[in-house]
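Can't paste images in this forum, so I'm doing it all in text. The chain is below; anyone willing to post the predicted structure tokens underneath?
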Amino acid sequence: MSDRFHVDSAGTGAYHAGEPPDRRAVGVAASHGIHLPSVARQVTRRDFDRFDLIVAMDRSNRRSLERTGRGRGHRAEVVMMRDYDPRTHDPDVPDPYYGGPGGFERVYRILERSCESLLDELTDPGPG
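Text version of the structure:
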């Protein structure tokens, strides 16, 4: 579906801008057949014109995104990733950074479920 959707990843802060993904994230992704060739970047105001949806991982990031995108005429809607997780009402994806590899696997599972549900919603033709 890469011809139908443009997907990108960015952080709300510049802490790791220019760096490759965390080695633990790369390892978990690889164990699921996913290659992570990306380099970290920070969200910009331009992203709010380039994308229809900007997906926040937690409430703190959502607030930062809403501040960044504040203003008239932006196309993007800010939503929470776990709004699409059928297994929880917890709004936040946990940050695995300070934990062990098990935390990265747990986050992978959360994101896999949530992304599948989001994709289903985006590709549902709707009523008649």
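The two ends are 23 Å apart (CA to CA). The helical segments are 23-31, 47-50, 59-68, 101-123.
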